[in-house]
Amino acid sequence: MQNGRHPVLWLTLCWVLAAVLITDLLWFVRGGASEVDDGRVGVLIPAVAAGPVFTEPPTVLSPDDDSAEPPTEAGLTAALTSLLTDRRLGTSVAVSVRDAENGSTLFSRNADTPVTPASTTKTVTAAGVLLAYGPSHRLTTTVLQGSTPGEIVLVGGGDPTLAFDEQHSYPGSARLDTLAASVRTALKGTQVTRIVVDSSLFSGSAVGPGWDSDIVSGGYSAPVNALTANGGRLQPTADHEAPRTSTPDLFVGRRFARLLGAEGAEVVQGTAADGAQQLAELKSPPLSHLVDAMLTESDNVIADSMQRLVAVKKGLPATFAGGAEAVKAVLSEAGIDVSGFGLVDGSGLSRLNRLTPNLLTGLLSAAVGTQHPQLRTLLAGLPVASYSGTLADRFEAPSATAGVGLVRAKTGTLSGVSSLTGVTVTVEGRVLVFAAVANGVPSGGTQGAQDALDRIAATLVQCGCR
């Protein structure tokens, strides 16, 4: 221990893991999400739910040996070099490994080369929105009085996890039926005949540059819209490939009319008048909750919404370009090296995205450190190998089982691309951060590339590499 950061680092990680487990337990004991009124008229704040309770994994970043030394560059080179020649990884492999305690580089292979990162992009988006707003910030969906009798304006606040009722795509979501009840109370019997849906918080193209043509039609994402429910899904399911609406705001408006008992009301797109009277508002769960869902399940709709919210915070156009610019600025202001930044969306769906492995590990090193406690949610949201989220069915091959419960990482997959970036602890007790990105994966070879990446991460756990 050279700089006193090592014990604090572990306290940080333990705090994150304890908070996640405690919140899960409270969610279970309370029977899931509920709505509470904080005493202000028309203000509904959903109780925070952490999602389903999972069986505890064998180990999740077990306590380290305070005297543990990091692997050496020579040791890691000997252990990893042959793994990077695995044909399943395709034509281009880029890897960065750092010591989480001090951020020093332990292994580098094409680590400064811009590569297509796929959904590991979401770690960058998560860092951007957490640094910009803080993990406790809540998004607000509001209903305003319209310009004529019987008209109301439903204004989106950028929360794509809204639910219409008790059926939802995201546990703990803010429910629009409770908002509708408050609106009915505020209107005192006035019949709603027209609903204007205002999604003007976001602007520009709703479909990302460089997205494959089947992203929306295949149900992988929805058009980015500031007024969205259930991630744009037509039905309240958690399925990542569920059918999605092409007009999220109008879809929400029509369902909201039914919740108000105003099925015959006209629903149109528009904007609220300046100074319009507020009838009611609905608060989202904290951003920490949304970011956790985004990372654990690799949710594309949440990710692209979060990126645009960073643009809103920075006073930039809430477009794909504005969001990318804003995230880069926020990271730079936090002292994170952004020299390898080349993103065009927040989800990683675009094939035009570029990041370097060094940027990814530099960001994770900052998250593990003590200067930016806002980033603890990023660590908590990373899936655990063979246990949760997009890693629930990974690390099953004999060559990768050493990583079970000891690797927390964000996955990334596009056709031809497979990536993995996260944090782990070595057999000697040293915390490492890593990023491995394979471009040019053979057609139909996604599973093989994932297995090869899992083996790399598991090797970091077990090799010692002194």
UniProtKB/TrEMBL annotation:
<keyword id="KW-1133">Transmembrane helix</keyword>
<dbReference type="Pfam" id="PF02113">
    <property type="entry name" value="Peptidase_S13"/>
</dbReference>
<keyword id="KW-0472">Membrane</keyword>
<comment type="similarity">
    <text>Belongs to the peptidase S13 family.</text>
</comment>
<dbReference type="GO" id="GO:0006508">
    <property type="term" value="P:proteolysis"/>
</dbReference>
<dbReference type="InterPro" id="IPR000667">
    <property type="entry name" value="Peptidase_S13"/>
</dbReference>
<protein>
    <submittedName>
        <fullName>D-alanyl-D-alanine carboxypeptidase / D-alanyl-D-alanine-endopeptidase (Penicillin-binding protein 4)</fullName>
    </submittedName>
</protein>
<keyword id="KW-0378">Hydrolase</keyword>
<feature type="transmembrane region" description="Helical">
    <location>
        <begin position="7"/>
        <end position="29"/>
    </location>
</feature>
<dbReference type="GO" id="GO:0000270">
    <property type="term" value="P:peptidoglycan metabolic process"/>
</dbReference>
<dbReference type="InterPro" id="IPR012338">
    <property type="entry name" value="Beta-lactam/transpept-like"/>
</dbReference>
<keyword id="KW-0121">Carboxypeptidase</keyword>
<dbReference type="GO" id="GO:0004185">
    <property type="term" value="F:serine-type carboxypeptidase activity"/>
</dbReference>
<keyword id="KW-0812">Transmembrane</keyword>
<keyword id="KW-0645">Protease</keyword>
